């Protein structure tokens, strides 16, 4: 029997990247040396290139790199690596990776800093030492070109891209809003940020997550990507996708929320995490089989590309499977609704994948579980799976947007589409922020506060 | 392609359309737990709405969602006034777009949370 068991996949690239210096004395010495050399940079949020509102904070990428979520990426990409990612979606080492990861600064800041290749830069967050960047290369980018090449166009990627990316696409805007000077090199965190409530209890970096799976005896675990509070359709997706496994259903479900700058109309990060937690607290999926966690990342909404990043993150966290639904990590109608599933089932040659990402050299080991849709069937009188239910003329689709509409109008969603305990969590954070969804005030609050406090290094 | 604007009905709204031709068009969904009116529009009006409201999006059911509450309220009022679910109700609302945008801007700052047990 044991030969049928699935093994926990290795981290992407063969080993977990962990670039966190724990020795406070050594960290202080490094920080002081940088201060003395004047090589100090305080992180600034990336602002929308037209509207000036925050769209990204690079601290989230530094955290995700240094704690191994993005293994084997170790820092800000060199020009050669960037070119490789944009043309082949592969790092120079040959491991697949979908997105540019860059430390960008303005020309004015670059001139003020006066640093170059071979220098070490101290990166501060909230006025305190946070990380260092060992600069290997300094180069210039054209942000507009970077944005277009990152996502592609209907002409260059006709298999899945349906519309040209523009100002309405938050991921395109993030790259379009990058500053033009890139400092490339490895990051090391020298002063670990402390997560605030409620983020602190959901922070499970890859090493810790793999240990947790061992403690729980989870041989198999399926990842659930989220940026939303769960409705019953999400819950059914989790439950049904978890029936896959090896000789028995997956032992666990890892909910991994993407936490970062959100679009107006999304739910606050705090509500997303606690609402998912409520699914297990209220017993809809028992806590022994359900863990909620998060990754720091200002979501690029790149559908198939984002799914690759999700596969990498969750493989690094130790998951054996990843569920992918319709419109995975998508916004608008830029992509085919099943672009992610096309990638994982057949590949997308124009993005560099003539086969699925699990079948190419440098690819992933995590197994995709491609799911279609769940809807309410008035005939079956239950939430039904689209490929099983034969009453598709009677289907009643539910969506996060439908529920947002109800919430905004003060109508409690029926229990059949949203658990009342989950709605209570929404209301709890609604009262805190005086608004149920992300609005500009929340975006400003989040940018000022972030998810962390910075301790003194002394 | 056809796009849908949904207007959810609570007791108050139900009373306002009682006895009108619109009442017959009420749909009950999700096991009868939710009552809704559906206004169907074409590409041109859909584009106008997406342009007017930055948050608006189209979901997997081809429904235009995430429009301001002020817009939904005005849409319901127009339905009551015109006793119709045709495109003309949306056109009537769009005539008052500046007023709606002003109300929507205030809403973007504060929405009262419901009191639930």
Mind explaining what this structure looks like?
The complex is a heterodimer of chains A (458) and B (117). Chain A is α/β, with parallel strands linked by helices and 458 residues long. Chain A has 14 helices and 18 strands. In chain A, the strands form 5 sheets. In chain A, strands 1, 4, 5, 6, 7 and 8 form a 6-stranded mixed β-sheet that branches. In chain B, the strands form 2 sheets. Chain B has a 3-stranded antiparallel β-sheet. Chain B has a two-stranded antiparallel sheet with strand order 4-5. The longest helix of chain B is centred in the middle third of the chain and has 14 residues, at 69-82. The mean pLDDT of chain B is 91. Chain A binds chain B through residues 264-265, 326-327, 331-333, 337, 373, 376, 378, 381, 396-402, 404-406, 408-412, 414-417, 423-424, 427, 430-431, 434-436, 439-441, and chain B through 6, 8, 10, 29-31, 33-34, 54-55, 57-61, 63, 65-66, 69, 72, 108-114, 116.
The count of helical stretches of chain A stands at 14
How many strands appear in the DSSP assignment of chain A?
18
Number of domains of chain B: 1
State the major sheet of chain B. Answer: 3 strands, antiparallel
> Cα-atom Rg of chain B, whole angstroms?
14 Å
Instruction: Name the structural class of chain B.
Output: alpha+beta
Spatial order of strands in the largest sheet of chain B: 1-3-2
Please trace the helix and strand order of chain B, writing H or E for each element: EHEEHEEHHH
Q: What form of chain A results from the Cα inertia axes?
A: globular
Name the helicity range of chain B.
Answer: 40-55%
End-to-end Cα distance of chain B: 43 Å
> If you compute it from the alpha carbons, what radius of gyration of chain A comes out, rounded to the nearest whole angstrom?
22 Å
Q: What class do helices, strands and sheet pairing of chain A give?
A: alpha/beta
What is the share of helical residues of chain A? Answer: 25-40%
Mean pLDDT, all residues of chain B: 91
N-C termini distance of chain A:
55 Å
| Beta-strand fraction estimate of chain A | 15-25%
């Amino acid at each position: 029997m044991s030969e049928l068991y699935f093994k926990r996949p290795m981290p992407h690239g063969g080993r977990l990247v962990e670039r966190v210096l724990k020795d406070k004395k050594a960290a202080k010495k490094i920080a002081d040396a940088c201060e003395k050399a004047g090589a100090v940079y305080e992180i600034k949020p990336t602002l929308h290139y037209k509207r000036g509102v925050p769209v990204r904070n690079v601290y989230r990428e530094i955290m995700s790199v240094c704690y191994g979520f993005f293994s084997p990426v170790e820092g800000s990409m060199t020009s050669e690596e960037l070119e490789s990612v944009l043309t082949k979606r592969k790092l120079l080492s040959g491991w697949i990776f979908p997105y540019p990861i860059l430390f960008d600064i303005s020309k004015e800041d670059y001139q003020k800093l006066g640093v170059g290749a071979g220098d070490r830069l101290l990166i501060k967050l909230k006025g305190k030492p946070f990380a260092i960047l060992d600069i290997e290369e300094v180069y210039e980018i054209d942000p507009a070109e970077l944005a277009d090449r990152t996502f592609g166009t209907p002409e260059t990627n006709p298999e899945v891209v349906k519309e040209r990316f523009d100002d309405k696409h938050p991921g395109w805007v993030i790259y379009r809003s990058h500053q033009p000077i890139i400092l490339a090199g490895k990051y090391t965190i020298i002063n670990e940020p402390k997560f605030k409530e409620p983020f602190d209890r959901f922070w499970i970096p890859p090493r810790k997550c793999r240990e947790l799976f061992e403690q729980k005896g989870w041989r198999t675990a399926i990842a659930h990507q989220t940026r939303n509070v769960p409705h019953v359709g999400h819950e059914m997706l989790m439950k049904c996708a978890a029936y896959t496994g090896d000789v028995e259903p997956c032992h666990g479900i890892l909910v991994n929320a993407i936490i970062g700058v959100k679009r107006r109309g999304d739910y606050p990060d705090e509500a997303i995490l606690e609402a998912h937690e409520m699914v297990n607290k209220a017993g809809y999926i028992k806590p022994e089989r359900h863990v909620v966690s998060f990754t720091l990342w200002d979501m690029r909404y790149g559908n198939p590309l984002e799914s690759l990043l999700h596969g990498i993150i969750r493989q690094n966290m130790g998951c054996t499977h990843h569920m992918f639904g319709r419109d995975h990590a998508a916004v608008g109608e830029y992509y085919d609704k099943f672009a992610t599933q096309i990638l994982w089932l057949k590949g997308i040659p124009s993005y560099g994948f003539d086969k699925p990402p699990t079948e190419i050299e440098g690819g992933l080991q995590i197994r995709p579980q491609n799911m279609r849709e769940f809807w309410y069937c008035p005939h079956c009188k239950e939430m039904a799976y689209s490929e099983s239910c034969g009453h598709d003329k009677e289907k009643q689709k539910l969506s996060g947007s439908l529920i947002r509409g109800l919430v905004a109008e003060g109508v409690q969603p029926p229990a059949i589409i949203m658990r009342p305990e989950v709605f209570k969590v929404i209301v709890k954070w609604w009262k805190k922020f005086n608004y149920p969804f992300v609005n500009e005030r929340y975006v400003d609050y989040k940018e000022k506060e972030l998810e962390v406090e910075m301790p003194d290094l002394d | 392609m056809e796009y849908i604007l949904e207007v959810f009905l609570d007791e108050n709204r139900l009373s306002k359309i009682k006895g009108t031709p619109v009442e017959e068009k009420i749909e009950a969904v999700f096991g009868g737990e939710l009552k809704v009116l559906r206004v169907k529009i074409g590409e041109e009006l859909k584009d106008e709405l997406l342009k007017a409201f930055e948050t608006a999006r189209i979901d997997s059911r081809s429904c235009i969602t995430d429009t301001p509450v002020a817009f939904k309220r005005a849409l319901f009022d127009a339905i009551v006034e015109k006793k119709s679910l045709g495109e003309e109700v949306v056109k009537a609302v769009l005539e008052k777009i500046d007023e709606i945008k002003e109300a929507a801007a205030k809403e973007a700052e504060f929405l009262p949370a419901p009191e639930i047990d």
